Amino acid sequence: MSDVTRILTVDDSPSMRALLNHALTAQGFDVAQAEDGLAALDWLALNEVDVVITDINMPRLDGFGLIERLREGSRHRDRPILVLTTESSEEKKARARAAGATGWIVKPFDPAKLVAAVRRVAH
Amino acid sequence: MFERPIVQAGSMAPERITVMQGQAVVSSDRNVELSTVLGSCVALCLFDPDAHLGGMNHFLLAEPPANATAASVDEYYGTYLMELLVNQMLSKGARKGRLKAHLYGGANVNRNMMRIGSANADFARSFVQREGIELLRSDLGGSSARRVDFRPASGQVRCRTVEDRFAPPVQPITRPAKAFGDVELF
């Protein structure tokens, strides 16, 4: 792992990606962005990352699908994956947990709490 | 207030749904008309012409918390409110690439709230632009209250100025106590 924690944010909303980028780079993280699950898989095939932060509702490949695909292979089996979502249902939270998510964060996110969670899982 | 709904020849009288501050309503019912009266508040109307589906929200954002970005409104909460409307649209069959937008409101009705009305209009315009959603029409700013009637199934909109007394008194909304990005690690 490099000294700087590398984060991939996955969200179909450019506005949300911009907010995440601002909140995380301000704390010294190295942030990359993907617009959906498939774009994330493409990026992760070529790049290393310490933490993935993903939305659930996205076109092409949603957050559940992304987590399942990452957990299928050996390379990202233990990679911390935080779900960041507007979803509040216990059923969806349980589904994310079963798929292999590391944590569940409800939007609208609090930058300080998000950064604390990233630091905690990116050991 | 006497208002004639947007009635097409031969159609039934519409079911009018008032969209209150803080709400987002989505419908594909051809008989539904979404209505709201805006002073400093802003309404975003979204429409997918292929899915014959539309939705409207109605918001006035507060200034951001002290530890947030240097934005003039709470963009974290605002982006969340916008995402709720977009997600409701997508869950009912809309496609983001097909969405068309209308923006109304953000008037400087109350001198004491002049800055927040303009800031909300700026936020809404920026959001639509950043998301790549085509803005078909906007009527923002000024000093008069507006009434907006929107047929979500057809995308038909009517926006008129009304007397300020028809705009409900509002306070900028702050995040509810539950909405502070709680974290649960598994």
From TrEMBL, chain B:
Give UniProt keywords alphabetically: Chemotaxis, Hydrolase
Q: Which GO terms describe its molecular function?
A: protein-glutamine glutaminase activity
Query: Which chemical reaction does it catalyze?
Result: L-glutaminyl-[protein] + H2O = L-glutamyl-[protein] + NH4(+)
GO biological process: what's one of them? chemotaxis
The superkingdom listed in its UniProt entry is Bacteria
Q: What is its EC number?
A: 3.5.1.44
| InterPro entries (alphabetical) | CheD-like_sf, Chemorcpt_Glu_NH3ase_CheD, Cytotoxic_necrot_fac-like_cat
Give the record's family classification.
Belongs to the CheD family.
What task does this protein carry out? Probably deamidates glutamine residues to glutamate on methyl-accepting chemotaxis receptors (MCPs), playing an important role in chemotaxis.
Spell out the protein name for this chain: Probable chemoreceptor glutamine deamidase CheD
Give the species: Novosphingobium nitrogenifigens DSM 19370
Upper taxonomic classification of the species?
Bacteria, Pseudomonadati, Pseudomonadota, Alphaproteobacteria, Sphingomonadales
